[in-house]
Structures
1.
Amino acid sequence: MNTAGWRRAAAVTVTAGMAIGVVGCASDSSGGSSEGSADTVSVWVTAGTDQVLASSEERWNAQSDVMPIAIETFENDPYKTKLRTAISAGEGPTVFSGWGGGGLATYVDAGEVASLQAAFDAAPELRDRIFPSVLAGGQVDGEIYGTPFNGVQPVVIYYNEDVFDAAGVEVPSTWAETMDAVAALQEQGITPFSIGGASRWPYLMWIAYLTDRIGGPEVFDAVVAGEPDAWEDPAIIEAAGMIQELVEAGGFGEGFSSVDANQGAPEALVYTGKAAMQLQGAWAYSGTYFTAAPEFTEDGLGWTTFPTVAGGVGDPTDVTGNLSSFFSVTADASEDQQEAATDWLLNGVFDDEYIDELISTGAVPPISGIEDKIEASDAPDWNSFIYEISQEAGNFQLSWDQALGAEEAEALLTNLEKVFLLSITPEEFATNMNAAAS
């Protein structure tokens, strides 16, 4: 369907969906309770895709037949509180960015975001361009409430090729090989894995991948669903035990709990040859490796997927990380604003120019059929790797702290840190998390 055709369909399908979405929600008599003018689509977003969105805003607003959009960018840390306060007061924007998962579900449960399902159903050729595993991150109970707008960011293993060559060690693809590599690297005085323990959140990647490899995605799905005693699943306990075995084997070296992940220190250990590997998100490639050590990144940095675990039932193509950031539409906005916002989300975001500009920043859009654009990018090998593992993922698990509600996520960070510091047992971790969940 062309853009004009989609807009005609949207006038019916979106409006019908919005009428359902606003039942029981406060709205002022002007039909424009979102912050800003009633004839403007206000958009709140965290920093990160600023220039791409600014260009999209300029192109979209240059058209004579659209309601203009006005994008406002916020720093990440204060954003969640500001957004929560504004939406609760009926003063939120028309469109806001989020990370899907538990945060989005909270807004959906409160009736504060509008469903995008009817709009996507009316334009299946647009819906089907998005990687299914990524689009799932914007769904709640199988219904679409968020659509992605930036690059996909799976967590991968980075490694120093020269370190492995000098040590005569093969890059591991199984957990048994990983533990063997840890022992061999330790003997040569090399820290096997760098990790920013002081920031705590890098710990999440280990428990997420190991749990998936052992028990499959259903294990954490049960946690997210709030099923009784879900944290005491044997796969989670075994995963925590394997983490502690890795710690005890010297897998992270000494002092890993004082390393700050937010200052590029873990990456520096890899590109200076002091550490062999790092488990980290795709954001580390352009955000740290390429900017801090471009020569090493071009000739010396390798990457691979997380190892398999013998006897595990998880699909080895499964990945974890940040699927993308998602845009959602507030239910308190007027029907005209919601229709205009949805028009932009489906036709302005991820059009050809948007995709080209996003790729130029080093990001990999979660959009099928753009292999030629990926191959023509400045980092084709890296971008193709990220594109392929994201597109082919049997399951793309959103980072656990984003998938859970805020309180349970904080309890997870606290207790997982204790697992890494060997101050609680895997069983105590599971018990503590069950208590936090209930």
2.
Amino acid sequence: MRFLHAADLHLDSPLRGLDRHDGAPVEPLRSATRRALVALVDLAIRREVQLLLIAGDLYDGDWEDFRTGLFFHQQMMRLAPQGIRVFIVRGNHDAESRITRQLPAMPHVHVFDSRRAGSVDLPEWGVAVHGRSFSKPAVTEDLLPGYPAPVSGRFNIGLLHTGLTGNPDHDPYAPTTPARLIATGYDYWALGHIHQHQIVQESGPRIVFPGNLQGRHAREIGPKGCELVEVDHGRIVHREFVELDVLRWHRVELDLSGVDTVDLLGERLAAAFEALLQPGGAAGPAGEHARERLHCARVVLFGRSVLHGAEAAQPGLLEAAVRAQALQQAGRLWIEQVRVELASPLDRGALAARDDALGEVLREVDRLLADPQALRDWAGDALGAGANLPHELADLRPDRLDEASWRALLLDAEAMVLAQLGRDLTT
């Protein structure tokens, strides 16, 4: 018996702010969650599985119209002729109270009730599946106490949407512990909610977050997919993580220390992008669809380089160089954002001792760098709270920036001022 364990599909998740990105591959980005679902169904059919388990957040929220539900319906109907059963629990994004539109039920698709945990016994495959859906988005109690006892003589699978005992990147919904999962006596726990693939426990029972099926933004980097598990006589004999993402997010950090020309920067970028897209590297294994996968990267340039001053004199110079290099990757790579976090290679101590405007600027910067609270107060007076920033830039609000971010911004401002003063930044 074989089954697939997926979670957090967030079907038709809205991608806001794409209009601010010139040249963004809008259609591939917006259709990525749908195409990943198609890949999941293709995999289920190709590997002849008996069960498809979806551990919550199938949808991103209530449907704007029926097209989202109809698309899922269409994909599930592809499984019916193959005899593949589908078991679903609702999570915080698609809790029962959030999804107001409904389509007719499908006989081979079982959505677990939100009022109490239930079980489905499948004697023909020697499996019992247990689960409970969220009734509301914010479920703060442990749902485990209501789960049924394991069915004797079966391979028992539990479906649960949970943050376990906490994850800084996810809300603590349906909190529970691995010890409590173990105490149920089940053989496999199919979890959802955490978007990064994570094996909580390898065996006795196996406890897994498959991660989300498709990364949706630049913070959800790396391979995404599902778990494929094979069971023989009540024991797991094979398990593997199968990459299904059709679009992959990356964070490329490039140290430019000692890089003093844009041409040399281009060489470093070319090497980094080639390594990223190399089959078997960050791009994933060479396979049937590896060459068609679109890659989206956030590039961070750091280190001490005279390019810090060049960027200050011509803002946008380094971003243009990064994007120009990405264009040479035959449409396989799109740059979502370029962050320039360079520092000046100048002897700041000697320059700060000068009795002129340049020295005064550097002494003020040194004062602020030495006192993080003074820097925050000074910036707060100058910038305000940033309450009018759009949702996508909320992480740039002054009250959310950490000390390292403030220091980087201050040094960027220093470089711009120095460039405007017309000083030779290479001496």
